[in-house]
Structures are given as C-alpha cells and as structure tokens.
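User: Assemble these into one structure.

Assistant: Restating your components, then the assembled model:
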Amino acid sequence: MTPRTPLRFYGDPLPDVDTGELQGKLIVIEGPDAVGRTTQIDRLRTWLEASGHAVLDTGMARSALAGKGIQQAKEGNTFGPLTMTLFYTTDFADRLENEIIPALRAGFVVLTDRYIYSIIARAIARGENRAWIENVASFALVPHVVYYLRAEVPDLVSRVVVGRGQFDYWESGMDLGLSSDMYDSFVKYQDKLIRALDSMSDRYGFVTIDASRPPDSIFADLQRSIAHLFGGVSRTAAPRPGRGTQSK
Amino acid sequence: MPLPTLQPNRYKGKLIIVEGIDGSGKSTQLSLLAQYLRAPGRPVAYSAWNSSPLVKETTRRGKKKEMFTPTTFSLIHATDFADRMERYIIPMLKAGAVVCADRYAFTAYARDVVRGVSRQWVRNLYRFAVKPNLAFYFRVPLEVAIGRILGGRDAIKYYEAGMDLGLSRNIVESFRLFQGRILEEYDAMAAEMGFHIIDATGSIEKQQQQMRDIVDRELGITLPASSPRPETRA
C-alpha cells in the first residue's frame, strides 16, 4: 500500500474518533437509481477479496438503528422531505460510527453504495436548502475516492424497464408531485438528481465514470483506478466477470 | 461565524414553547396553559418532544438497546422534530392554531452540546424550525429537580441521566452532573433566545398565573379571536 495521509472529516470531527487510527480505504460508489451501482459493488468485492483485501460493503437504509424505521416510513404515505433527509442522515451516521469507522480501524476496504452525496442530492431535488444539508452531513469522513457512475435518464429508464419491470414509487420521486404517472415523474425526478450530483462533482472531487457503457467496461475502469489507489493490485486475481446481480 | 437562527413565524397561528430540565414542572404548566387558551374559535394544538409516530419507535428501540452515539442521538431527535414540524406544527400554525410545544429546538441546543456535539452543527441542524412567539424557561435548582424525580416516577433512565457520557457509574450522580451541565447551557442561552424565565420553585398556581399574565401581555391582542375568558383562579 502507498503511504497514506490520515482521513479527515468534512466539518467538525465526530467525538471520540482518532483519524490516525483509520488504516483502511474508504471507497464510495455514487450515482442515480438503476445506474448499476450494486452490480459493480458485488464484482469489486469479489475481486478485492480475491486479491487478499478484507471488504465491508454497506449502503443506504441498512443501519441497525434506523433501517427498519425508514422502511416502515416508506410504506406509509406521510414521509415529508425534511423528515426523510434527516432519517437517512441518522441511518448514515449510525453506519459511519458503528460499521464504517470500526472497519477502517481494522484495515478493511469499505465499499459504500452511496454516501452523503445522495442524501444531499435528494434534499436538493426536494427544494431543501443546500447549505443546510451540506452542513448537517459534514460529520462524514472524506473518502479516499468517490466514483460517480453517471448516465442519462434514458439509460436509467431502459434499465428499470428491462431489469425490474416496474417503476418504484420513491425512485420515481412520486412524493414531489411532479406528475401523476410514474414514468413522467421518474424522468423528471432522476433528471433533478443527476443535475444535483453533477453540481456537487467539483466540490467533492467525484471521479466520473460513464455508466452508459456495458458493465464490463465500467468494471474495468473501476479496477484500474482502484488498483492505482492501492499502488498496484494484481489484476490476474480478478475473477471472470459474472452476471449482473439483483439490485437492492 | 454567527450561529444559525430559526425561521420567523410567518403564519396566522402562534407558537408557545416550554423548556427546562427534567423535573422542572414545565409539562404540568403547559397543559394548564393549554386549558386557559382553549376557547371557542381558537384551536389549541399540542406537540411533545419525541412523539412522532413515524420516528419514536426507532428512538425507543435505540434507547432500550443503548445504541446511540451523541451524533445519532442528536439526529434521531431532529428527525422526530422535523416530522412533527412538517406534518403537524406548521399546518396547525397555517390554520391559525395556538401551538403549544413541550420542549423545542433549545432542548437539543443544550443537551446535544453537553453530549459533545458541535454547537454550530446542532444550531444549523434545527435551522428549519419556526421561531416561537413565546418561550418559557422553567428554572429550577438541580437539587429540587432531583428531589421531584426521585420522589415521583419509578427510576431515572439511562439517557436522561447521561449515562452514555460516562460521567459517573452511579446513575443519580450521573444525572446530577449531566442535568447540571444542561442547566448551564439553558442559562447561557436564555437572554439570546428571549426566554421568559419562570421560577419553578414557586407554587404551581403562582407559576401558572405568571405564564397567563405573560401570554396576555405579549400575545393578548394578536391571539386568534375567542370569546371573553373566564377569570382565572390562583
């Protein structure tokens, strides 16, 4: 591994965390819904483990504290934008403090399916104040690298239709009241999310990857970049590209 | 950098809140005030800290299993508050109600900072909250509050005593230290936040009379219409 500089926080540090102890790598995969993040994370995990790295993968609404509460709130019809933003931030904080940081301390590679950027993008898409949510989320660690899998809305639409066979209420942003039908709403909402993520790209140093290409090409790019991050991981250990796995 | 502030109340209704440490008697006083305010043509709404149907189950479980860190404790309470704000407090204010809130953002300002969360961060976190028209702070010496709590309810709870801070292994001692620091935070912000300070060692009747006098003086002419009030008894 190349010499590392200690990770830091975006804003005020979390109480009781010594960043000097964090030896692992924090890698974020960001991007809109249905862009293929899960597929790539599954393949990266297999590849990294084959190369001898211990890997933790984590993603939104999977925390022990808030995961269940968020699922229940999504099943109801009264999940307001501020409440949603803060519930997901709670979920993220719980995973950061209880999963991500302990794993980094133990020298794991942490692969996270989305990070604070999706929370910020969703809040912006819902008209919340950008400075407010950026400050709220500023307790996050600055990752070693953020890959932004970027595609246009038509690419996402075809993946939803082919891959899942139906539109999801929340992925379509139906709570925003943009349209009464899920297709139109999905198109408008995902466009807002993509624009919000684009607008964060420079500030947060995203590495943008063109995700309109086939999964194998995306994976090859990610492998190359991550190998560089480690100062050269043997690519011969890479398994044969598998088939895309289920999402969520 | 100046600390972030709350949103002015641009709505028809009025917002009255109470603050104070556990055992200060604020909830008793607020429910008596709500009765005084309730009158034909003047809807009165009530919202308690930590009561969102969407969020409180998560909070309850987290407390029971002692899962919270200072940051997640702060965030889950803000989530609960946001839900009540979006779904209840703001709609009620728009509808012209007098909204009475038992604890408000100031509880988080005091408590979360004592837990070690950044002051600037927690003030920003609650920036979406509507600024109260009237804020009452029930000021009580620590020993009086402890006496009330030990004499009344079954037991002091883990987070209420700040046991997560590791101040003391003795729960009463931890409560004393934790609530003492919260008291200092409340006192320090009282002037900035325009708290009306009520001496919470006085009789219940005397405190209530003070509250009603302040409401009449500060909001009397702006309160939504009602029929004449019956005379209050001390």
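The beta strands of chain B are 14-19, 44-48, 98-102, 134-139, 196-199.
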